[in-house]
Design a protein that fits this description.
Bound molecules: pyridoxal-5'-phosphate
Largest sheet: 7 strands, mixed
Distance between the termini: 51 Å
Strand content: 5-15%
Strand order of the largest sheet: 2-8-7-6-5-3-4
Radius of gyration: 21 Å
Oligomer: single chain
Order of helices and strands: HEHHEHEHEHEHEHEHEHHHEHEEEH
Length: 397
C-alpha cells in the first residue's frame, strides 16, 4: 500500500464520533446537529428541473473539459461578479469544470507538485482538511500558518520565513475562510501574488463561500480580482476554485470549477484526463442555469442573515462570538476546553458542534483552533434559535 496513506489524519467528523462515543444526551430533547457544513436550504426548483430535463444526456460520455456552454456560463459569471475583463477569461484555456471544489482542490496538488525536490505546501491553520491530504499524497510536506484572533483569523503570512517560501510549491488559501468566515483583503492577496512571483509557487484559492456574505455592499474579492487589479491579465500563478454547493444549495450536484492561469489549467486538463473526473451532462445543464441566475443567491444570503440576526443576540452576551463577514459558520471562543464544551453541550442539551481543535494542527505547542467550536447555521432558523437558547441555558447554568 502507499505508505503516505498512513500519514493521513482521521477526518474531523470521525474524531467527533469518537468523542461522542458512549455519551448519551439527558432528557428527551431532540438532536440539533450544527457540526456539518452541509447547506440545508431547499434547492431552487429551476435547477432540479434542468437536471430532469437533461437526463437523456446520460447516453453520452462527457468530456473532461465540459461543454463550451458551461465554460462560457462560468466565464460570464466570473467576469460579472469580480469585474474581470471578458477577454482575460478564455473559456478554452482558463476554465475547467470540477466535480465540486473538494475534488478539484485535492487534484490540483497532484498536478502542481514536483516531488523530485523536497516540496512544501503552505496551508492555513485551521483549514479545510483536504489541503493537508492533497499535499501529503502529492509528496509534499504541509507547512501550517496560524490563523487565530491575533491576525483577525487570517493566516499570519508575515510569520512565514523566506526559507519556507523558497521551498513552497503550492499555497492554499481559503477566502472567505472556513471556519472563521474571515475574508482576505485584496492588498494581502496582492502581496501573496508578489511572493509567488519571487519564489515561483502556485496559489490555489478556495473561494467556495464567496457568495454567502453578510453585507450586500461588500462582496468578498477573488484572487483573480486581486491579480487583475495588478494588471496581470493572464492571472499568472493564480487559480481559484468555486462551486454551486453553497451558493445554490446543491451540495449533491457536485458542480464547481477551477479558473485562472492557462499555464496551470492546461497541464491540469492533461492530469484530469487520467484522473477521470468528468461532469455528467445533466449536471452541466443545471449548472449553466444556476450560474446564470443571481436572484436565488440573494435570497439564500437573506436566509443566512436571518439566522445570524436571530442567534447572535442570544449568544453574544454569554460567549465571545461575532457575525462573520462571510460563510455560514459561527466560530465562538469556548469558556474552557473546546472538546469538553462539545461533550457537555451534547450531553446536557443534545446539540452537536465541532471542536475547533479537530480542524487544526498543533504547531510549536499551540493549536490555533483550540478553545473554539464551529457551529454551522445550516438548519432551519427555528432549529438554530432553539440551539442558541439551549446553549444559553447551559452557559447560564
Ligand atoms: C472550505 C471548503 N472548501 C471546499 C469545500 C467542498 O465543497 P464542494 O466540494 O461541495 O464544492 C468545503 C465544503 O464544506 C469547504 O468548507
Amino acid at each position: 500500500m502507499n505508505p503516505d496513506l498512513d500519514r493521513l489524519q482521521a477526518y474531523p467528523f470521525e474524531r467527533l464520533a469518537r468523542l461522542k462515543q458512549g455519551l448519551s444526551p439527558a432528557g428527551d430533547l431532540s438532536h440539533i446537529p450544527l457540526s456539518i457544513g452541509e447547506p440545508k436550504h431547499p434547492t431552487p426548483g429551476f435547477i432540479t428541473e434542468e437536471v430532469l430535463a437533461h437526463l437523456h444526456g446520460m447516453a453520452t460520455y462527457p468530456t473532461t473539459k465540459g461543454s463550451l456552454a458551461l465554460r462560457e456560463a462560468i466565464a460570464g459569471w466570473l467576469s460579472q461578479r469580480f469585474s474581470l475583463s471578458a477577454e482575460s477569461l478564455d473559456p478554452e484555456r482558463n476554465i475547467l469544470p470540477v466535480s465540486g471544489t473538494r475534488e478539484g482542490l485535492f487534484a490540483i496538488a497532484q498536478s502542481v507538485i514536483d516531488r523530485h525536490t523536497p516540496p512544501l505546501c503552505v496551508l492555513p491553520n485551521p483549514f479545510y482538511q483536504i489541503y493537508e491530504g492533497a499535499s501529503i499524497l502529492a509528496g509534499a510536506t504541509p507547512y501550517f500558518v496560524s490563523a487565530d484572533s491575533r491576525s483577525g483569523f487570517i493566516p499570519d503570512f508575515e510569520s512565514v520565513g523566506a526559507d519556507v517560501w523558497r521551498r513552497c510549491q503550492l499555497l492554499y488559501i481559503c477566502t472567505p475562510g472556513n471556519p472563521s468566515g474571515a475574508v482576505i483583503p485584496v492588498e494581502t492577496l496582492q502581496s501573496l501574488i508578489e511572493l509567488a512571483d519571487r519564489h515561483d509557487f502556485v496559489i490555489a484559492s478556495d473561494e467556495c463561500y464567496s457568495e454567502i456574505y453578510a453585507d450586500e455592499e461588500r462582496p468578498p474579492a477573488s484572487l483573480l480580482q486581486a491579480a487583475a487589479q495588478m494588471g496581470r491579465a493572464g492571472y499568472q500563478r493564480c487559480v481559484v476554485f468555486n462551486s454551486l454547493s453553497k451558493r445554490s444549495n446543491v451540495p449533491g450536484l457536485r458542480s464547481g470549477f477551477v479558473a485562472g492561469d492557462a499555464r496551470i489549467i492546461q497541464p491540469f486538463l492533461l492530469y484530469r484526463t487520467y484522473h477521470g473526473c468528468t461532469m455528467p451532462p445533466p449536471t452541466q445543464a443545471a449548472s449553466i442555469a444556476a450560474w446564470r441566475d443571481e436572484q436565488h443567491v440573494v435570497e439564500n444570503r437573506r436566509c443566512y442573515r436571518q439566522k445570524f440576526d436571530a442567534v447572535l443576540p442570544i449568544l453574544s452576551p454569554l460567549l465571545d462570538v461575532h457575525c462573520p463577514e462571510a460563510g455560514f459558520y459561527l466560530w465562538p471562543k469556548t469558556p474552557g476546553d473546546d472538546q469538553q464544551f462539545t461533550k457537555d453541550l451534547y450531553v446536557q442539551q443534545n446539540v452537536t458542534v465541532l471542536p475547533g481543535s479537530f480542524l487544526s494542527r498543533e504547531v510549536g505547542g499551540a493549536n490555533p483552533g483550540r478553545g473554539h467550536v464551529r457551529m454551522a447555521l445550516v438548519a432551519p432558523v427555528e432549529d438554530c434559535l432553539e440551539a442558541a437558547r439551549r446553549m444559553s441555558t447551559m452557559l447560564s447554568g
